[in-house]
Specification:
By secondary structure, the protein is an alpha/beta fold. The protein folds into 2 domains: 122 residues, Aspartate Aminotransferase, domain 1 (Alpha-Beta Complex); 261 residues, Aspartate Aminotransferase, domain 2, CATH 3.40.640. The chain has 15 helices and 15 strands. The strands form 4 sheets. A 7-stranded mixed sheet has the order 4-10-9-8-7-5-6, with helices on both faces. The protein is globular. 46% of the residues are buried. Bound molecules: pyridoxal-5'-phosphate. The site of pyridoxal-5'-phosphate (PLP) has 12 residues, from helix 4 and helix 5.
Length: 414
């Protein structure tokens, strides 16, 4: 007979357990890092350092020291590359996620009379839907003809991988762009990114991913998968704080392409000549040529604080290893304790899920359950129409958090 380990034993054996003390965790059980990651204690120091440099140096801070602000975005590059499985010339920290999606579509959505469709999911995150729709309209096409929405089958919750691939094949030479999430924000499903790229390229389409729920959650190999572009925010699993600076990836093989349309700004031109204020654009030979404005130093300082912790913890592979143990534990005690009273609509296969659960209360009482969880100081979120999302984040959630959550849920759900 198998003896299962208790939460206490699992926490005692967890090599990442001590990282919890590097975070400020709000009172209660914090299970909402999928929406806003907890604050690293070091964030205060990293941000204060830049405030102090500003106070002491004023404008000279742009050019002084190893943290010179004119190069500051470059301090994030190597860690972004390792988190996304990219080369350093393929990733940059800039703007917000939706802004980056637009900038990427300016370059990579190039509709023609024949090939004009963008394939997204029905019930994509609204911002992604709006971005794709408005890009289509901006180019003079009609979203009702050019925006293709794919949905799960009737009475199913998540997209079947084969249905995604066959939808791509069906739209074939009318498909300009496939824009899908790496991890679906509502269900927590991990999409088969490598297969999607292959299917998209097979029909001559460009493939981009929104990695908002994927970065810092699951392992990624953007370069090797041959993804054309990607964008992500950093305030979810990368703990950069509210409104934190976002990321973008452009595959190496597109970087030197002079034919790509691109919106330009002075931060995309070669740093060596930038301050000569010439009006000839000399594109930086990396994804940094997509940068527009000088970088927001304070949010970037906050992001550095968190990425340094992730690096110290062994990066995404180490976090994912713990996450899989937490998922296995969570699945088991949820089934033992609540049985059929609660259903997790996240796929059960480990390679199709990250750390987020999408729980549905079987008797339809979900909204009340969510409200009582909130009263019991369980921080999670409610997503219309009927899902409670909870995410044990390996960097700062313990097995005991999961155990306590299930106990409270058991008391609340009838
Ligand atoms: C969180 C999230 C966003 C948020 O967009 P912002 O531009 O950062 O406000 C967009 N899309 C997806 C899929 C998300 O999960």
């Amino acid at each position: 007979m198998t003896e299962f380990l208790t939460a206490t034993e699992l926490d005692a054996a967890d090599p990442l357990a001590h990282f919890r003390s590097e975070f400020e965790i709000p009172d209660g059980i914090y299970l909402v890092g999928n929406s806003l990651g907890a604050m690293p204690k070091a964030t205060r120091d990293y941000v204060t350092e830049e405030l102090d440099r500003w106070a002491a140096l004023g404008v000279e801070g742009h050019f002084t020291g190893k943290l010179a602000w004119k190069d500051y975005h470059g301090l994030l590059t190597d860690q972004f590359a390792s988190i996304t499985g990219a080369r350093s010339e393929e990733v940059v920290a800039m703007n917000g996620l939706t802004v980056n999606l637009h900038l990427m579509m300016v370059s990579f959505y190039r509709p023609t009379a024949k090939r004009h469709k963008i394939l997204i999911e029905d019930h994509a995150f609204p911002s992604d839907h709006f971005a794709a729709e408005s890009q289509i309209a901006q180019r003079g096409f009609n979203p009702s003809e050019s925006l293709v929405l794919i949905s799960p089958r009737d009475r199913e919750e998540t997209l079947r991988p084969e249905d995604i691939l066959s939808a791509i094949a069906t739209h074939g030479d009318e498909l300009a762009l496939v824009l899908l999430p790496g991890v679906q924000y509502y269900t927590g499903q991990v999409l088969p990114m490598a297969d999607i790229v292959q299917a998209g390229h097979d029909v001559g389409a460009v493939v981009g991913f929104d990695l908002a729920h994927a970065v810092g959650n699951v392992e990624l190999s953007l370069h090797d998968w041959d993804v054309d572009f990607a964008a992500w925010c950093t305030y979810k699993y990368l703990n950069s704080g509210p409104g934190g600076v976002a990321g973008a990836f452009v595959h190496e093989r597109h970087i030197a392409d002079q034919e790509l349309p691109k919106f330009l700004g002075w931060w995309g031109t070669e740093a060596s000549s930038r301050f000569e204020m010439a009006t000839t654009f000399e594109a930086i030979q990396t994804v940094e040529s997509w940068q527009l404005s000088n970088a927001p130093i304070l949010p970037m300082a906050a992001l550095r604080a968190s990425l340094d912790i992730i690096t110290a913890a062994g990066g995404v592979p180490a976090m994912r290893q713990k996450s899989e143990l937490q998922i296995t534990y969570f699945d088991r005690i949820l089934a033992e304790t609540l049985g059929a009273r609660v259903q997790n609509i996240t796929p059960s296969a480990m390679n199709q899920r990250g750390c987020q659960y999408a729980l549905r209360v079987t008797n339809g009482d979900g909204k009340r359950v969510y409200e009582e969880l909130a009263e019991a100081r369980v921080l999670c979120d409610w997503r219309e129409p009927d899902v409670i999302r909870v995410a044990p984040v390996p960097l700062y959630n313990s097995f005991a958090d999961i155990e306590r959550f299930v106990q409270i849920l058991d008391e609340i759900v009838i």
